[in-house]
Amino acid sequence: MAEMSIYQAISLDIAQRIVNNEFPVRTKLSGRTLLAGQYHVSSETIRKAISLLKEAGIVDVSQGKEITIVSVDKAVEYINRHNAYIEPVYSLKQELELLLKEKKRLDAKFDEILHDIINFSDRLKNLTPYNPVEIEISYEAHVIGKTIADIKLWQNTGATIVALKRGTGMILSPGPHIRLQVADRIVVVGDHDVYERTMNFVNRRKAEIAESNN
């Protein structure tokens, strides 16, 4: 089976939306620019998709490029002609939905476990040398505006960032390109001296560093 192009897939999706009465007969679709925004493709790709629907007698396109729905029956026929494409896509979509549900479940479990570790860190101090600690970034800290990669935390302190709390949210395993802000709280793990080393390094003032470099 030949691979379906993006504009063909979009034409089928629009046809299905017509069959579902999301776009009733005689209603006018949004302009190509708005449709392109919905599908995150170029206006030219939308133009090709609409051309297929026009050829199939599903829509009518006026001189002013206004798109009008003209036939549900033709939309049904169009979809039926492309069942060979739709069935495997539907199967893949179902599989993807199941995987996304599983990912969501695992993410929630990971979040729950990490929260438990953080919340009970004081109780874990005698159980493991790698207890997580939380450090808030002060308003004069030299790390403000720098990325996690920039500050080379592990090289300077031996600490590893496992989470970053910002406002009421929390970013698990923050990436190297996230920029640190005032009042961010980083959650790190390391040996028994990690809190003191990391606190001293992270919250060192810019002025102190400038003085030491002179």
Brief characterization of the structure:
The chain has 214 residues and is of the alpha+beta class.
Write the layout of secondary structure elements.
Blueprint (H helix, E strand, L loop, with lengths): L5 H14 L8 E2 L2 H8 L3 H13 L3 E3 L5 E3 L2 H10 L1 H37 L1 H4 L8 E4 L11 H4 L1 H5 L2 E7 L2 E4 L12 E5 L4 H9 L3 H8 L1
Plain-language structure description:
With 214 residues, the protein is an alpha+beta fold. The protein folds into two domains: 6-81, Winged helix-like DNA-binding domain superfamily/Winged helix DNA-binding domain (Arc Repressor Mutant, subunit A, Orthogonal Bundle), CATH 1.10.10; 120-213, 2-Layer Sandwich (Alpha-Beta Plaits). The chain has ten helices and seven strands. It has helices at 6-19, 32-39, 43-55, 72-81, 83-119, 121-124, 148-151, 153-157, 194-202, 206-213, and strands spanning 28-29, 59-61, 67-69, 133-136, 160-166, 169-172, 185-189. A hairpin with a 5-residue loop joins strand 2 and strand 3. The longest helix has 37 residues, at 83-119. The N and C termini lie far apart (70 Å).
Rounded to the nearest angstrom, the radius of gyration is 28 Å
How many structural domains can be distinguished in the coordinates? 2
Residue share in β-strands: 5-15%
Task: Identify the CATH homologous superfamily of the largest domain.
Answer: Regulator of K+ conductance, C-terminal domain
Name of the CATH class of the largest domain: Alpha Beta
Overall shape: it is: elongated
CATH architecture of the largest domain: 2-Layer Sandwich
Give the count of helical stretches: 10
Strand order of the largest sheet: 4-7-5-6
Decide which structural class fits the backbone.
alpha+beta
Q: Residue share in helices?
A: 40-55%
CATH topology name of the largest domain, in short, is Alpha-Beta Plaits
Element order, helices and strands?
HEHHEEHHHEHHEEEHH
Let me know the largest β-sheet.
Answer: 4 strands, antiparallel
Mean pLDDT: 84
Report the count of strand segments. 7
Separation, N- and C-terminal Cα atoms = 70 Å
